[in-house]
Amino acid sequence: MHIILLGLLIASLLIALKISRAHASKFDAAPPRFKPSERAPTPLESKEQGEADRPVFDATQRVEATPKPTLKGRAWVTDGDTITINNTQIRLFGIDAPELNHPYGQKAKWALHRLCKGQNIRAEITDTDRHGRTVAKCSLQDGTDLSAEMVKLGMAIDWPKYSGGVYSSLETPSIRKKLFLANARQTGRMDLWAKYENRQKST
């Protein structure tokens, strides 16, 4: 009788030990291994569906700006806001000078000529105007902005439509009255041009 009870006790202990080991194996299982061609998922990849595919900005990556095309060389001056470099006619960025046959037109041309004389001009191309002319930010060898200098000299006015108003603060007092025809072009008063040119023809 005692032998039977002892056997039952040993059997129950063995069963309890097996159950305990099986329960522990659920938590002690070794982490899954990945084949050489595989890799463990990153925290980003474990996000909800749709989020994992979004591009992530990497602050260490540098975005290189595409350099703008430029021309360099001696300039031939046409008028107060137009030059030619290497056979390319260039309209100075962001300003408007009087036409040659308008008041101060000749003065504006020679003012620009004096600025460019003996200089290699650098023209950073920005656009093409409606007349097919190349528009460029032009500067002297020391980096001086030609458009800014012409406005400072009172030989041109800022053209906010194209410049964003960057030269407005450089305009001399009453310059828009002095260069009234250039101002009329900006304000859409081309009838003033017609009146002025008709008077010129009649004299």
From TrEMBL:
Protein name per UniProt: Nuclease-like protein
Cited InterPro entries: SNase_OB-fold_sf, Staphylococal_nuclease_OB-fold
Region (Disordered): 29-56
UniProt cross-references to PROSITE patterns, sorted A to Z: TNASE_3
Record keyword Oxidoreductase present: no
Bias type Basic and acidic residues, positions: 45-56
Source species of the chain: Donghicola tyrosinivorans
Record keywords: Endonuclease, Hydrolase, Nuclease
Pfam families: SNase (PF00565)
